[in-house]
Amino acid sequence: MSIERGRYAAEPIVRPVHSGMLGVLVLISILRLVILLGWRDGGRSTG
Q1: Digit-coded pLDDT (tens) for 20-44
Q2: What's the rounded Cα separation, in Å, for the pair 22 and 16?
Q3: What pTM was computed for the model?
Q4: CA 33/CA 35 separation, integer angstroms
Q5: Which of 12, 14, 34, 11 is nearest to 22 (CA)?
Q6: C-alpha closest to that of 28 among 14, 20, 39, 3
Q7: DSSP reduced 3-state for 10
């Protein structure tokens, strides 16, 4: 029983960490796409 309680108590603590990690990964991926697209567009326009 103590193990089950520990799992339930740990869930709310782990969820925000995972959500924060996912948020950071999403922001990094979006920034990479924006930079790559902007760099490609700039190279095409100048080239």
Answers
A1: 888 899 999 999 999 988 877 766 6
A2: 10
A3: 0.47
A4: 6
A5: 14
A6: 20
A7: helix
The position carrying tokens 């922001």 is: 27
19: which 2 tokens? 């959500």
Total length of the chain? 47
Sign of CA dihedral 24, 29, 34, 40: positive
Here the tokens at position 6 are: 């520990």
Q: Give alpha helix (H) positions in 1-47.
A: 2-46
User: How far is it, in rounded angstroms, from Cα 38 to Cα 43?
Assistant: 8
Query: What tokens does 27 get?
Result: 């922001």
